[in-house]
Amino acid sequence: MATRLGQTVLSESEIRGRVCELGAQITRDYTGRELLLVGILNGAAIFLVDLARCIDIPVSFDFMAVSSYGACTKSSGIVRIIKDLEENVEGKHLLIVEDIVDSGLTLRYILEHVKARGPASVKVCTLLSKARDRGEHPAVDYTGFVIPDRFVVGYGLDAGGLYRNLPYLAEIETDGAEA
Ligand code: IMP
Ligand code: MG
Question: How far is the CA of 155 from the centre of ligand 2 (A)?
Fold first, then answer.
């Protein structure tokens, strides 16, 4: 299925400004505590490295990789761990760093998995949240932007593995059958 870039949703400078605001807020909230950032690969990789450089206290990183979509643009509801945490997170303050919360299924699964390992606290920071009814799905502590419920790419987010390197966020348009 052919895809092409559509309208810009967030510019590079809008993203940069908001990421630094989030970093400042996280700095204030975690001063005096040891913070472990848990990035959710692959989508949150770019956000995590930019966010980390806007946090002004010592932090460590760990990463998980999960798959919830396969190659298509609608949630399958099936979440699979592809790469687990490497750190022992017992007694640590964890901040899950996500690219986007859509249905919330991926996040709910990750939170259950991580909380079972006995961390001192777990919070969530997502760059993007889609404006949609999520019913019982988990609360997010730090949200960069709430965006319309459309498929977007760039700044780490992909369509079929592509476009993660775009420095801004754009809608994607798909020719042919519904994405
Ligand atoms: P959820 O489980 O429906 O909340 O989906 C979360 C995951 O799906 C995110 O971590 C992304 O990897 C992916 N995702 C959801 N919406 C988009 C989008 O608009 N563009 C690219 N990836 C998305
Ligand atoms: Mg993701």
Answer: 12
Closest CA to 61 of 31, 110, 21, 94: 94
Catalytic site positions: 102
Give, as one character, the DSSP assignment of residue 26: H
Walking along the chain (179 residues) 10 residues at a time, the average pLDDT comes out as: 89 98 98 97 97 98 84 66 95 97 91 96 97 76 96 96 97 70
For 73, left (φ over 0), alpha (ψ -120 to 50), or beta?
alpha
Ligand number, closest to the Cα atom of 105 = 1
Nearest-angstrom CA–CA distance, 12 and 16: 6
Which pTM does this prediction carry? 0.92
